[in-house]
Amino acid sequence: xxxxxxxxxxxxxxxxxxxxxxxxxxxxxxxxxxxxxxxxxxxxxxxxxxxxxxxxxxxxxxxxxxxxxxxxxxxxxxxxxxxxxxxxxxxxxxxxxxxxxxxxxxxxxxxxxxxxxxxxxxxxxxxxxxxxxxxxxxxxxxxxxxxxxxxxxxxxxxxxxxxxxxxxxxxxxxxxxxxxxxxxxxxxxxxxxxxxxxxxxxxxxxxxxxxxxxxxxxxxxxxxxxxxxxxxxxxxxxxxxxxxxxx
Length: 247
Fold this sequence. Notes:
Blueprint: E1 8-12, H1 17-28, E2 32-37, H2 40-52, E3 57-61, H3 67-81, E4 86-89, H4 104-132, E5 135-140, H5 144-147, H6 153-173, E6 178-185, H7 191-194, H8 198-205, H9 216-227, E7 238-241
Parallel strand pairs: 1-2, 1-4, 2-3, 4-5, 5-6, 6-7
Helix pairs in contact: 1-9, 3-4, 4-6
């Protein structure tokens, strides 16, 4: 039997990279998946891939930082799907720059997408999770939220905040058998890391004991574990998947 049979999963930032890998992994394990992305084109492409696997899929274009839009789409998801069993808050952006030159807009964009977006989606489904007395919430943080990084104070703050948010919500929901955990990916081969220059990539690799970047599939496997029956007694944790970088 597939690990996620008869489950409905919502994945934000599902249009590419880690979000896409998680959505496809969940579908391969029997889940029907709601793909949320900033554009209908990207979410629609992944939804089509999921349907090709024989699972149901829905595609929505949503700005995760827009409270009204999130509330509206959550109501539609619950109406169309009947329930939600798994929520993966993965949507994220970067707007890098040294703090002395960082604009208010770049700070706000990153915090609103990476942290407020997770709050809004968690809140939107919280009553449904509580009513059914079950649910899995998985927040995609980052090793940068654990160790910081020059030029990424906004990103680090958002990802560190996501860890505190995860632990607080885990305590709020534990009595209802709802688990809330975070994954802190290291440097993963995605569109975001492909923009790094050769010298910077070489410097980063020296910090990773395994000597290589991870794959989106590595994060998807971690998410699958946290969403599966095997993790029913795991909550409030941060699973670092980084090739040993921050140990």
